[in-house]
Amino acid sequence: MTSSIMFESPEARARIAAWYERFRDRLTFPNESREVSTRFGATHLLVAGPEHAPPLVCLHGALASSAHLMGELGALVQRFRVYAVDVIGQSVKSSDVRVRPDGPAYAEWLTDVLDALGLARAHLLGVSWGGLVALRMAEFAPARIDRLVLIVPGGLVMGSVWQGMVRVGIPMALYRAFPSEKRLARVVAGMFSNQDDAWIPYIGDALRSYRLDFRLPPLATPETLAGFTRPALVFGADEDVQFPGAKLIARAKELMPRAETELLDGCRHSPPTDDAFRARLGARIARFLGPDAASPLASPGVAPPVA
Question: pTM to 2 decimals?
Fold first, then answer.
């Protein structure tokens, strides 16, 4: 393997690739792996849900993948054709390249993905870093978005630098330098809303395997989002150190007049990874995306076959 922009070593890449398969194996509904070409390189995605259902394109957070996100949004495959895309530069499954997050590059990349899938327009959902990518799409290619869902997105607000360093930055640096279960627990305490037997050890390996680059670009402004006039649904987390929930929601209302907002109580940056929260989140998103999608969702983890 040649020198990697994303990973510390070939062994690190292999470690994260193995984790991807573990998370995909946890999916209890049919799903299909695809790869499409873009101007920035090959992009992988998972597809699930009824073939002729409304398309919902989903973007995961930093250091995650399509399999991680699909597992948290499984209930939505009852009503949508879900395309969970492996964000370039943030997933082991897509090309080993990184693009500038402060210009049109992410929108150009996602436009190529939509073109390859034959989607003139789709609902778009982004989580954390994926929310930042979705905002770039809203800025540079708003006509490709039907409705927009943002969950604890980057690109709208910033939290206290001091609190971020104390609760997340320093614990993360200490864990990377001197990994131990105790130091990982400190990192998790500042980011996760609950303990999870798969996510927590994964994050430990991811923090030691990826070449980290969390520099955030300038925040969106009324001018940059002036062309986006579609409905949006924005979730903030009230205990989020990185993107404080109340501040995030206020900013979303300022930038997107048609935005609906919801503050997730008792949540840190990573919302709960349990079936009760997944079902509630999925139902709320389905109601927002349209009347046909608002009918009661089946139990999480059960979906019609993928065509």
Answer: 0.93
